[in-house]
Amino acid sequence: MNEQGKDPQQGRRAPEASGVDLARQALAAAREQARARGNAAGGRKRQQQPGLRSGARADGRDPMPLMAALDRLRTERGWEMPMAVAGVMERWPEIVGPEIAAHCEPQRYENRELVVRCDSSAWAAQLKLLAPQLVARLNADLGQGTVRLIKVQGPGGRPKGYGPWRAPGSTGPGDTYG
């Protein structure tokens, strides 16, 4: 001991850690914390959540054939029914036969109702009689419940114009449907 009664080793401070030593200490502390968390979780490995890492598996961003992309777009947007009905409009002669198709034409499809216009009142009456069979055929082709009703319209003419310059007696087309 020295003359003041102190140990020379006590007076000295330990040298402060340098950058490398601090990094080693921080790494050791992080490893210890990771071990503690692993034990707290029951020693199980954490599973990666899907979507957090890209990989070789297929996902929605991968390239695909054009028809597959169009089918996916049609499904996502809910366009199946309108596209199916548009297909029926194109295949109308195949569905109803060439004789009916020559005189009756589908106009529009709204609220599960198909509106068909005929070129004469005789064909309109004929189509009204055939409507239940056509509805069954369309539903078999498109899916049950797609077409609920066929509305038949007779031949169209100009709208009746009333006014001071209208000639009495001219009522439009010579057809009696209406």
TrEMBL record:
Residues 1-64, 151-178 are annotated as: Disordered. Residues 1-15 have a biased composition (Basic and acidic residues). InterPro entries: DciA-like (IPR007922). Pfam families: DciA. Residues 23-39 have a biased composition (Low complexity). This is Uncharacterized protein. It comes from Streptomyces amritsarensis.
